Description:
It is a single chain. The chain folds into two domains: about 1-70; about 75-220, Up-down Bundle (Growth Hormone, Chain: A), CATH 1.20.1250.20. It has helices at about 1-10, 25-45, 45-65, 80-110, 115-145, 145-165, 170-200, 205-220. The protein is mostly helical and about 220 residues long. It has eight helices and no strands.
Amino acid sequence: xxxxxxxxxIKVMVPGKSxxxxxxxxxxxxxxxxxxxxxxxxxxxxWTFLILFTIFFVIxxxxxxxxxxxxxNPKLGKNIPFMLGLFSGGLIFSIVAGFIxxxxxxxxxxxxxxxxxxxxxxxxxxxxxxxxxxYFGGFLVDRKxxxxxxxxGSLSISISFLTIAFFVEFSMWLTTFMFIFVxxxxxxxxxxxxxxxxxxxxxxxxxxxxxxxxxxxFLSE
Length: 221
């Protein structure tokens, strides 16, 4: 399906101005090493990797502050709305991702159901609901504003978590119902965070800023 949409996407794309700049290979290598060390720490819980991550990350920050064409523009770090959106997004995405990965183990331990039942009865309805919530979230942002939708999404996630925490043994279908609202809340917050981040960036910063948001989302999830 993705391949089929490419010709239509090319037709609506506006040709951008190309610039001849050197690629910051050193910055890419330093950031890659720091990310690898951080991921190794989160999987092995070896403090050596955390120390290495800190060292390489500090070197990376100093490097992009010195070069003329850095891999990531250090000015983004001084953009308060952008950084708040990035931090909030990473935090919310990681929390929901942790919950999603925990659900199969929780359902199997409590209700002794197989993987197919968990996928079809619990996870599938929630993931499909994202289609509806995604459209509805964009509509609410235009009508009610970003703050309203962000609070609504955060409350939806929080209330669903609390309900599952206290009543998880009541019924598997309750978890299914709450899972729908968790995914709906995630869809709401993603819509708002994307809007906040994109609106806080200048035309020259949009590409690198949105790429950094997508990268943060990838690491969190």
